[in-house]
Each structure stands twice: as C-alpha cells, then as structure tokens.
C-alpha cells in the first residue's frame, strides 16, 4: 500500500538496497584500483557480472585479476565464462585457464577440467579422455572439492571405457564427498551399506547416511548423531 506522501515502504527498501550496493561497489573499486587488493577486484568483477549484468566489464576485470594479479578465483571465473557464455564461448581457452589454475591447486578448476575431459566438448579440440578426467578429479578431491570426490566415485561405481569397477574405492570416495556435505555422496554410501557393496552390510549405518542425505539436500533439518 502506498504511503500518503513520498515513497512507499517497499520503494524505500529498494532505494536503500540500491544505495548500499553502490557504496559496496565504490568501496571495492577503491580497494581494487587504489590498493590493488586481489579479493576486492574479484568481488567487483562478480558485482559487475551478477548485479549490474555487465558481462563485458566483468570479463575485463576477471582477466586483469587473473593474469596481472595472479588470483585463482578470477581465473576460474574467466574459464567459466569461456565455457558457458555464448558471447565469449571458447572451450580451449577455458581448458587452458582451468589447467593453469589446477596446477596452482584450485580445486574448482581441477574439477571443471575433469568434467570437460570426462565427456569431451562438442565442437572443440577437447576429446573424451577418462584417464585425464580421473587424474583431475583426484586432484580436486585431494584439494577438498566435494564434487571432485563424488565425480571420481561415480566413475569407479559404474566402471566404463576401460576403467574397471572398484566398489571399495567408490565407497571411500562417496564417503569422503558425504563428509563434505554432498547429498548424493551420502545417498551412495547409504545404498552401499544396504547392499554390502564395497563395505559390509550395515542397516544402521545405511539409515544414518540416508538421513544425512536428506539433511544436506534440505529435506530434513533433524540433526544426525
């Protein structure tokens, strides 16, 4: 409902939010261009991409922060742009950035490069290479990336393209991803305890991990002991 005079409450909230956003942008601009803070440059690029929807400005700043300031998160974001954005799509550039960042122990970059090799990228020179995908997922998992652990577990769980099934490895990796709050990792652990795949059957543990899967997917807020 409109107030008798001036802006409505909703308009005031919107205006205050916009002003706060502008203040944050100005702060990060000062810290980025004035103090050369890597994190602030990256956050400013994220602001351009997600708030102002200026993808050209975001790309320019991601590139600067990645190459000039050597900030891995910006290299990862730039790689994602080259991989998914129609305007800038260039899978080879994306892979190059992911590989470089992975070498600097960026878990997300290792995982993304692994995903590209897992199936190959249509319309590019990047072909399917499961051994390379396994190598990259292993690094991502070792660096603490839950999706890297889960993706690796799925390969050993199904076994294909010359990679044999290894249920023990699949269980260990599923458990590791579950411990990092990956709901589908918990689902797999629960099922493996139920069936006795890669681990001895244990109905109690199966139920525990089933509840964890629900907790991590937001279906249940009850703590699991």
Automatic annotation (TrEMBL):
<protein>
    <recommendedName>
        <fullName>Beta-lactamase</fullName>
    </recommendedName>
</protein>
<dbReference type="Pfam" id="PF08238">
    <property type="entry name" value="Sel1"/>
</dbReference>
<dbReference type="InterPro" id="IPR011990">
    <property type="entry name" value="TPR-like_helical_dom_sf"/>
</dbReference>
<keyword id="KW-0677">Repeat</keyword>
<dbReference type="GO" id="GO:0005758">
    <property type="term" value="C:mitochondrial intermembrane space"/>
</dbReference>
<comment type="similarity">
    <text>Belongs to the hcp beta-lactamase family.</text>
</comment>
<dbReference type="InterPro" id="IPR006597">
    <property type="entry name" value="Sel1-like"/>
</dbReference>
<dbReference type="InterPro" id="IPR040239">
    <property type="entry name" value="HcpB-like"/>
</dbReference>
């Amino acid at each position: 409902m409109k107030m008798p005079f001036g802006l409505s409450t909703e308009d005031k909230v919107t205006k205050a939010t916009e002003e706060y956003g502008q203040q944050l942008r100005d702060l990060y601009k000062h810290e980025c261009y004035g103090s050369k803070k890597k994190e602030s440059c990256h956050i400013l690029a994220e602001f351009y991409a997600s708030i102002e929807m200026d993808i050209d400005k975001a790309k320019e700043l991601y590139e600067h922060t990645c190459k000039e300031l050597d900030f891995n998160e910006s290299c990862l974001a730039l790689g994602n742009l080259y991989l998914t954005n129609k305007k800038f799509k260039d899978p080879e550039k994306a892979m190059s950035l992911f590989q470089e960042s992975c070498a600097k122990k960026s878990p997300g970059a290792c995982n993304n490069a692994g995903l590209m090799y897992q199936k190959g990228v249509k319309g590019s020179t990047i072909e399917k290479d499961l051994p390379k995908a396994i190598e990259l997922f292993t690094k991502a998992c070792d660096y603490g990336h839950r999706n890297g652990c889960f993706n690796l577990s799925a390969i050993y769980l199904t076994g294909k393209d010359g990679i044999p099934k290894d249920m023990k490895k699949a269980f260990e990796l599923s458990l590791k991803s579950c411990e990092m709050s990956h709901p589908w990792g918990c689902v797999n652990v629960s099922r493996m305890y139920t069936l006795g795949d890669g681990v001895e059957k244990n109905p109690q543990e199966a139920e525990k991990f089933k509840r964890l899967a629900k907790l991590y997917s937001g279906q249940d807020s009850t703590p699991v002991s």
